[in-house]
Amino acid sequence: xxxxxxxxxxxxxxxxxxxxxxxxxxxxxxxxxxxxxxxxxxxxxxxxxxxxxxxxxxxxxxxxxxxxxxxxxxxxxxxxxxxxxxxxxxxxxxxxxxxxxxxxxxxxxxxxxxxxxxxxxxxxxxxxxxxxxxxxxxxxxxxxxxxxxxxxxxxxxxxxxxxxxxxxxxxxxxxxxxxxxxxxxxxxxxxxxxxxxxxxxxxxxxxxxxxxxxxxxxxxxxxxxxxxxxxxxxxxxx
Length: 238
What we know:
By secondary structure, the chain is mostly beta strands. It has 2 helices and 19 strands.
């Protein structure tokens, strides 16, 4: 019989370089299923439980607690150990109430940070698309695959603070000069600075931003920065 569906495993040596796993422990590891994040910028839920948070010892244990509805991602129960978890996603362990936000840190793409009870229903999401739909309403698409129809006038590149799991917009952070930003990838991943200048893109170069730190400044593509506040980050991101 012909094989149906994609493979749920990948060779460890071919897994994304940022995955914090032992490369020579066995031949295969979980694959990230298509979903809210690119497989090159996300972890599968099972790997997070076993290798990152270390709340389980084996993948069988990870699968068991996921099937028992003991894990939430962005406020929603997930029952698939291959479900993708990426930038700014919030994982909650239901039995204990402990919650983690996945952010860039110390040049690493995704690192879990512990967040308190008040923040586990909050998430920052970056606007990557803006479309005018029927009824002259605006539909915004975000970096994690979510979409919202809103009367707010916002721009691509801005960031929204939303309430989970309803994705109701609490506040809006403009991507503009003076805004506090988080660098999401590259050698400066996890660093927080301020927007000094925004430069329009040209034929050979993408739109860029000059980010100021305490003692230096760098020029980066706008795709790898995310506004997180006006004077300081509005929620915990490092």
